[in-house]
């Protein structure tokens, strides 16, 4: 599974400085630890567990499971019998035992440059204890679900950690989601309380979050579910009461037109509640397999799945992946640009960094506001050493050339990371060469909401890198590639990516629907966790994610990966971004219909179209030649930046019934794409 020796051709290595102090300094050490983690997980993860506080120790097997639906109910249990509290391990342990009370936990950077705040571990602990007491005063108790619908402010972290301190289960809903989406998630998890804010700016755009929250509460009421209490943070308010106990300053940009409806029977002011709350709160000691949080992810049926993670295994796994994948050192300044409303924000903005006593940047704004240099300005401002962002953001910034990056020094950077989707080699090389100046290894991480943390990833000093490859499995993770018949493929191969055994951080169930959990992830290939992603393995044993299985195309009996076609298109110097989908074809089964967004100032014409077809043909083969290439000034994306290929398939087929497109960041691009359809694609 893991090659005996690291390949030496066509690879990039970390700097010698990095290797000298790295937690995993060589490929040989990686392989030694990997073998131990797979053959003796109790010993490997037991050593990790010693870094944390346990009110009582586990009994029985360290990691117990069944992945085979034919042998009974699917389950995963880690450290059963142990009790702990994840908030205690993230905050109290760092403040009182590790003496990190005065260390900065977060540099908060607001939407507007100059809107900033510094929060230490001691200050964060005090605020969390206060808000824990607020929740208790509102009747929230262990096991209750609490919905959180907030912008990227320090109070979002406070709210989630206060929940877990008292044993409540948080369900965070991304602040870009609609009222309908919030209502659906509140009702599915039967939340007893909602926490929100008045509003926030995202770039130039004012988002009135309270109006959306009120609409969601009313929708719940119309469907027979009553939210008794809504706690409102006045983030944009200039009211004196909002400044009394709030740690986050209101945004510098005035917003006199912000409408703030108030229902005294439901709404309570965060700031007034915090004023009278004690800053001491004993943690609720929780069983290892008690629920920690629910986070909703999209499902193939259209109904979101409530992915449930539990206390101990998730804590161990996020702490370890953060420490080793980013090679965390005590003096690091770490910045993950993800919103906490997504799993990346849960695992690698909040839980993983705080478990390691890290200092992080918490960013409210956009990479292009007020200009396209904002990210690199922040890197220099805080001397960021480890930087983690999405390929979508990298491709967006590539579009503007090198100058906006190179006007800043970026000398502090040591490790770069990518998350969210496979990165095409051209974007990887730009990130490595321009942003990192060929001295920072790029950790291209593959994982899912369901996995809790990284499952395929390089390690900065240990793993030679191949642009665009997810490289090798993380410790304790055993991947396999299956064909359609469920047979394991050896050597260089391509098929379904599955995992043969659990790791501590894997999801435990779909909230309220264990049958859906088993059907979605274990029924197709009994004995394996099925990721839903296609994957190939090359001659050196490196894994390459080829995209979701439903993003695979069958053209004349040949499986084609949309990601592979898109990567070939984006390698053309004129193309900033591309998306490929299938369109029914009477002879070939499916034909390739591609959308391309050009770099600024360039024009789409027949010559360019011919060049692009030639490039794909040369990169992949004649079978992959696109039948249609459409100019796309913009692509339909969710607010998290993911391309909605379902919508593109409808456009390719000229089907106007698009279904639910409420999660689109900009619905206007859809009309433009219909107008620009290829004339011959009737």
TrEMBL record:
The keyword DNA repair does not apply. Residues 98-509 form the AMP-dependent synthetase/ligase domain. One of its GO terms (molecular function) is AMP binding. One of its GO terms (cellular component) is cytoplasm. Keywords: ATP-binding, Ligase, Lipid metabolism, Nucleotide-binding. SUPFAM superfamilies: Acetyl-CoA synthetase-like. Its EC number is 6.2.1.1. It catalyses: propanoate + ATP + CoA = propanoyl-CoA + AMP + diphosphate; acetate + ATP + CoA = acetyl-CoA + AMP + diphosphate. Monomer. Interacts with TFEB. Interacts with the 'Thr-172' phosphorylated form of PRKAA2. Interacts with CREBBP. Belongs to the ATP-dependent AMP-binding enzyme family. This is Acetyl-coenzyme A synthetase. It comes from Nothobranchius rachovii (bluefin notho). The gene is ACSS2.
């Amino acid at each position: 599974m893991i090659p005996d020796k690291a390949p030496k051709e066509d690879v990039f290595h970390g700097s010698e400085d990095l290797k000298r102090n790295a937690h995993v300094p060589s490929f040989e050490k990686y392989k030694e630890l990997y073998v131990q983690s797979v053959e003796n997980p109790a010993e490997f993860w037991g050593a990790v567990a010693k870094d944390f506080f346990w009110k009582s120790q586990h009994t029985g097997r360290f990691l117990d499971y069944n992945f085979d639906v034919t042998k009974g109910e699917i389950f995963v249990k880690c450290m059963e019998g142990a009790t702990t509290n994840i908030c205690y391990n993230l905050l109290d342990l760092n403040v009182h035992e590790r003496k990190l009370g005065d260390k900065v936990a977060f540099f908060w950077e607001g939407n507007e440059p100059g809107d900033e705040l510094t929060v230490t571990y001691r200050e964060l602990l005090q605020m969390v204890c206060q808000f824990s007491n607020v929740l208790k005063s509102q009747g929230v108790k262990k096991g209750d679900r609490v919905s959180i619908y907030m912008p990227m402010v320090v109070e979002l972290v406070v709210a989630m950690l206060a929940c877990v301190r008292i044993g409540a289960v948080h369900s965070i809903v991304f602040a870009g989601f609609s009222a309908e989406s919030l209502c659906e998630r509140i009702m599915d998890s039967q939340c007893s309380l909602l926490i929100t804010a008045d509003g926030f700016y995202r770039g130039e755009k004012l988002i009135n979050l309270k109006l959306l929250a009120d609409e969601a509460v009313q929708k719940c009421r119309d469907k027979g579910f009553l939210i008794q209490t809504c706690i409102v943070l006045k983030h944009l308010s200039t009211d004196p009461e909002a400044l009394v106990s709030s740690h986050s300053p209101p945004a510098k940009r005035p917003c006199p037109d912000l409408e703030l409806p108030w229902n005294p029977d439901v709404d309570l002011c965060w700031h007034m509640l915090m004023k009278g709350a004690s800053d001491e709160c004993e943690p609720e000691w929780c069983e290892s397999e008690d629920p920690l949080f629910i986070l909703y992810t999209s499902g193939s049926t259209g109904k979101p799945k409530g992915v449930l993670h539990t206390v101990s295994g998730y804590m161990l796994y996020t702490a370890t992946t953060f420490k080793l994948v980013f090679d965390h050192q005590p003096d690091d300044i770490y910045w993950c640009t993800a919103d906490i409303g997504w799993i990346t924000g849960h695992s690698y903005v909040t839980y993983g960094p705080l478990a390691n006593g890290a200092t992080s940047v918490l960013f409210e704004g956009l990479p292009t506001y007020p200009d396209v240099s904002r990210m690199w300005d922040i890197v220099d401002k805080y001397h960021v050493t480890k930087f983690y962002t999405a390929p979508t953001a990298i491709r967006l910034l590539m579009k503007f050339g090198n100058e906006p990056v190179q006007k800043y020094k970026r000398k502090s950077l040591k490790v770069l990371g990518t998350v969210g989707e496979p990165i095409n080699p051209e974007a990887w090389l730009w990130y490595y060469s321009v942003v990192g100046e060929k001295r920072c290894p790029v950790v291209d991480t593959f994982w899912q909401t369901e996995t809790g943390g990284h499952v395929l990833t390089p390690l900065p000093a240990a793993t030679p890198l191949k642009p665009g490859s997810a490289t090798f499995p993380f410790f304790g993770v055993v991947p396999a590639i299956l064909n359609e018949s469920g047979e394991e493929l050896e050597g260089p191969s391509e098929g379904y990516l599955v995992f043969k055994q659990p790791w501590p951080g894997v999801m435990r169930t779909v909230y309220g629907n264990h049958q859906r959990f088993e059907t979605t992830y274990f029924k197709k290939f009994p004995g394996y966790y099925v990721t839903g992603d296609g994957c190939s393995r090359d001659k050196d044993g490196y894994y390459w994610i080829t995209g979701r299985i439903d993003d695979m195309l069958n053209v004349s009996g040949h499986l084609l990966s949309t990601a592979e076609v898109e990567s070939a298109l984006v390698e053309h110097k004129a193309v900033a971004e591309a998306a490929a989908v299938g369109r029914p074809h009477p002879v070939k089964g499916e034909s390739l219909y591609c959308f391309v967004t050009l770099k600024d100032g360039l024009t789409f014409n027949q010559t360019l179209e011919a060049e692009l077809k030639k490039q794909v043909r040369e990169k992949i083969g004649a079978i992959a030649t696109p039948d249609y290439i459409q100019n796309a000034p913009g692509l339909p994306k969710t607010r998290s930046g993911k391309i909605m290929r379902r919508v593109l398939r409808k456009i390719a087929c000229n089907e106007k019934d698009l279904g639910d497109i409420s999660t689109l960041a900009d619905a206007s691009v859809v009309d433009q794409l219909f107008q620009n359809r290829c004339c011959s694609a009737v």
